[in-house]
Every structure is written in C-alpha cells, then in structure tokens.
Specification:
- The protein has 4 helices and 15 strands.
- It is an alpha+beta fold.
- The protein has 2 domains: about 90 residues, HIT family, subunit A (2-Layer Sandwich), CATH 3.30.428; about 160 residues, Nucleoside Triphosphate Pyrophosphohydrolase (Alpha-Beta Complex).
- The protein is elongated, with a radius of gyration of 25 Å.
Length: about 280
C-alpha cells in the first residue's frame, strides 16, 4: 500500500489539530466544520495526503474530492435549506494553510458574502462615505524618522511621494489604525507616540475611483517611535517603493499633500499639534 505524504508542520496533516467536528472521512479525504465559518454549516474538505495546489494532485483524487463535495452539498441542502451554496478554493500564496482545502458552505440572500475588487473590498471596512459627486475618507499617516531622514512611499503613478498610512476601519481608533498600517506596509511594529498634525484636505480627484469627484479627507498624522535596529521593507504590501528622504531635502521632492513640506519640519522638531485646513478645489 502506498504511504501517504504528510508534512510534520502542516496543520491539516495532523488530525489532532482538527478542533471541530469531522463530518466525513474515508481513506483519501476528510471533511470537517470550519473553525471560523462564513455561514453555519461551512465545511472544509481536504485530501489526507499533503498537496498545496490543484495541479499537484492525481486526477483520480480530484475526481473523488468532487464526488464527496457533491454529497456534502446534498447534506447541507437537507439540513440548512439554504438559498444556494458556494464551493471555493485558494491556491498558491493565497492558500493560508498550505494544504489544499475546499470551502463548501450554504448561502443565503443578503448574507454579505460576495466577490469584490480590491478597492471595493477595502472600502467595506474603511470609514468613509460617498453621495452624488462627493467622496469622503478618514485616514491616518505615519511620520517615521531615522538618522535625519523620513520614510515615504513613492507612487507608481506620477512618481510623487506620500506618507505611509491608510483608512481607519469601522470601529477602529486612529492610533490602532496607524500602527496596523505601518506594520502592514513596512514590516516594522512601530508605536504611535502622538498626533502631530490634523488636516482637513479638500481637492478635486484625479484618476482611479476618485476621478472627477469632490474629495474631502480628514487625516491624523502621528509621530512614530521606531524600535532600535528595526529592519524596514523596501516595498509596501502593494509593491510600491519605500524611500528615505533627508529632512533638509524635502523642498527638492514632490511630496503630497504639498502643505506637508512646510509643516513637517516643525512637528519633527517637537512643535505643538497643528490643525490644517487645506482647500485645493478650483
């Protein structure tokens, strides 16, 4: 009998790691309830042998997985009476477990699950609103200083520089937001020391989802404490370049919003909180 390939550090290769109810099992596959279900009845179906991606598996095993998924769907319909169901699988870098698994779960009208683009998915969590031609967002920015230089993101569109940061999520405070965003974008766990600048920025949107819109962004800029010997990434999680710009050379670079070039020097040197009203609408 052929020995199954198992990986010692793989969660799904060791059945002792399965903390929920096993609902189906045979010689080749196993199905169990998802620990964090999208809807009640959410099941994970896995091959017992270790595979990462669909193209690694023998055709016979793939066929067996689909036959078992057919049985599971029939059971879900009988037990939960859903409006429908979804079967999905993430491969490669998007396989968060590292072991091939199918998600099978009941679906209901208005259950909130659906396919979105990256920008649409993010906007579900960011504090903001849109009405008619108006576009509003609540954001944070990080002032990260080391050896007389400040860390910026270089935009792929236009080549200008902007500060690390992002949208505050619903139910999230601004301090937590900028610490989360800094870690996501630089790989370093910095601590927000204090708010240095609060800005209300009005401008006419150009390009992308804001093109032609009347934009209003409320932003809190924090001075960040940087751990000793911290090693920063050279690119953000969105693959944009991270660049250290000397503080005394700010005037030589296209830093946006533009008003920051005049205000950053003072707050970096320990000046008081600054409130800025900036209106670039024409």
């Amino acid at each position: 009998m052929k020995m199954r390939r198992l990986f010692e550090n793989c969660v799904f290769c060791n059945r002792d790691n399965i903390m929920t109810d096993i609902i189906y099992e045979d010689e080749l596959v196993m199905a169990f309830k998802d620990y964090e279900p999208i809807n009640e009845g959410h099941v994970l179906l896995i091959p017992k042998e270790h595979f990462l991606d669909v193209d690694e598996m023998p055709d016979e095993l793939l066929a067996h997985l689909m036959l078992v998924s057919k049985k599971i769907v029939a059971d879900l319909k009988e037990v939960y009476h859903p409006a429908g169901y979804s079967i999905m699988q993430n491969g490669g870098a998007f396989n968060d477990v590292g072991h091939y698994h199918l998600h099978i779960f009941p679906r209901y009208e208005g259950d909130g699950f659906g396919w979105t683009s990256g920008s649409e998915s993010q906007s579900l969590f960011d504090c903001g609103m849109e009405k008619d031609n108006y576009w509003f967002r609540y954001r944070t920015g990080a002032i990260i200083i080391r050896d007389g230089k400040m860390l910026f993101v270089k935009s792929e569109i236009g080549g200008y520089y902007y500060m690390i940061g992002g949208g505050v999520h619903l139910g999230e405070d601004s301090k937590t937001c900028i610490e989360r965003e800094t870690l996501e974008e630089t790989g370093v766990n910095c601590t927000a020391k204090r708010i240095a600048i609060v800005s209300e920025n009005f401008f006419n949107g150009v390009g992308g989802e804001i093109d032609g819109k009347e934009c209003h962004v409320l932003e809190c800029y924090y001075l960040m404490d940087v751990p000793d010997n911290a090693s920063f990434e050279t690119e953000t999680d969105a693959a944009e370049e991270l660049v250290w710009i000397p503080i005394d050379e700010f005037s030589k670079h296209d830093i946006r919003p533009a008003f920051l070039k005049q205000e950053l020097q003072g707050v970096i040197e320990g000046g008081p909180l600054i409130h800025i009203l900036n209106d670039e609408r024409k």
